[in-house]
Each structure stands twice: as structure tokens, then as C-alpha cells.
TrEMBL record:
Taxonomic lineage: Bacteria, Bacillati, Actinomycetota, Actinomycetes, Micrococcales
Active site: 146 (proton donor), 288 (proton acceptor)
Database matches in SUPFAM superfamilies: Glycosyl hydrolases family 6, cellulases (SSF51989)
UniProt keywords, alphabetically: Carbohydrate metabolism, Cellulose degradation, Glycosidase, Hydrolase, Polysaccharide degradation, Signal
Pfam families: Glyco_hydro_6
Protein name listed in UniProt: Glucanase
Signal peptide segment: 1-25
Source species of the chain: Promicromonospora citrea
Alphabetical list of Gene3D superfamilies matching this protein: 1, 4-beta cellobiohydrolase
A GO MF term: hydrolase activity, hydrolyzing O-glycosyl compounds
Amino acid sequence: MKILKTLAAMAAAAALLLPAAPAAAADPIGMTSGFYVNPDSLPAVWARTNAGDSRASRIQASIGSQPIARWFGNDSSIGSTVASYVGRADGQDKLPVLVAYNIPDRDICAGHSGGGAGSVSAYRTWISSFAAGIGTKPAVVIIEPDALNGMDCMTQAQKEERLGMLLYATQMFQQKAPNTYAYLDAGNAGWTNASTIAYRLDQAGIDNVRGFSVNVSNFYTTSQSVSYANAVNGYLGTTKPFVVDTSRNGNGRGDGWCNPAGRRLGVPAQVGGGAEMLLWVKTPGVSDGPCGVAPSVPAGTFDPNLAIRLIDGV
């Protein structure tokens, strides 16, 4: 008996020297009971405050009542703003989808959605606070739409600076938001070729986060987007999960990217569907800029006429 006790003690001591088994990967989908519907999304607020408008009920039924990502930009209180938002979702046992959109020189090459943090240090503070605001609550985050694609007009030094900021962002979500699925944005099927975007994703820290997003604010079909994402994975040499923005891809791309006519709402948010998730990342009815069928509507502004066109596919 004494020998058995000694052996048991030795085994226990040896176990203490072994590395701990890795913790199970966080699964915010499994931690929640569906996607969060923000009652204060732009279309929901418009429908509520314009109840007498003949378009209001249709916009609320088709768009305002759906799970839509909330976009977050420059905000000196970003940590508490994010904490409040994910807290409301968590209180309903729902999964919120957030977009971090504050990279310096944002949309520098196209210009319609300019802005962003004023410096690298300001961005690092902002994105760190963003991740900390989520903390241990379940969430999905799309990191900086277009940031990796919209670099072609930049100098090499500017490109390296941006990649460094995105790398820092992925590290912050990895360290401070353990129950978040974060996805670096990888553009769309008609923009940067798959080999180039795979290289940029690697430099920006794709291994630190869940995966990547495609088709954000664009119109390519889900099948086109899945094919593109699979090609990106081929160049990455791995199989990273990806999500597809289906908010406006019901009729495919058509002609142009800035408020084009003839587009339609796509499949509402769901798990699966050819990707890890299909999401409404772009808010349907929000203008891409003063262009296309909304020549006087600034980027980021909700327009009921754009919303109705998406509902009707015209």
C-alpha cells in the first residue's frame, strides 16, 4: 500500500510538470440563441419615426426587423459604447455583430467614406478599448472593411503602417475578447486577386483571429463569394473560416458598386449557407456615397428610397 501511495504521489507530481491542455476554442454561436436584432438600427429608427410614411411598415418588416451589423467609428468612449451594445445583446442571449471601422486614412483611395483615427497611436488606443469593451461576452466582429484592399494608392511606408495597425487589432481581439469571432476583411470577388489578399491577410495577423470576411458592402452572389474565399484559403495554405455579406446580393452585382440600380436584399443572417455565417454587414438602405441612384445622399446616410429599391429589386 505504501508503494502504491508513493507511485500515486510521483504521478501527481509529474502531472504538474506537464503543460496544461489547451482551453476549448470559444464558440460565441453556441453560447447564444441566435443573432441580435438592434432595435435602434438606422432603418428601424427611420421606420419608427416615420410611421405615417407608406414605406415605413415595409422597411421595418423587410430590413429593420432583421439582424444587421452595427458599425463603430471614431468615438472617445468606444469602450463603454461597445460594452453597452454587447451587454444589451447578452441580456437577450443573442449574438451581436459589430464592425470596427476607424483605421486612419480610411477609404483613402476611393474617398467616399473618409475619416478614421487621427494617428497610429490613437487607433491603437481605440481598437484596444473596442476589444476590451467586448471582454468575455460573445460577439462577432468584422475588422476594418476595405482596409487591406484599399491600399493600392498608398506608398510602401503607408502600407506597412496600416498592416501594423491591423496586426495590432488582431492581437487585441485575441487577448481581450476571448469569446469573439473576429474576421479580417478580405474585400470581394472582383477586387484584389486572391493571392495578393492572402499575402496581406497573413501579414495582418489572420492566424490571431477566427478568419476573414468577403463581399462587405458589395453585391457579388454568395456562390461567387464562396468561390473567392476558397481561393484565398488556397493561397493561405490553410482553411480559415469566412463569412459573407449577403445584405444586398440577392440579384448579384450588376453594373457598378456605388448605389447601383437593380440590386436586391440577400439571404438574412444565418449560420452556414456555404460559409461559416451569412451576415448583413452593410445596412440595407445606407448610401455608399453621393452616386448611382442616390446622387445626393452622403455615404453612411440611410435613405428610404434606397431601402425600397432593395426590397423590390429595382
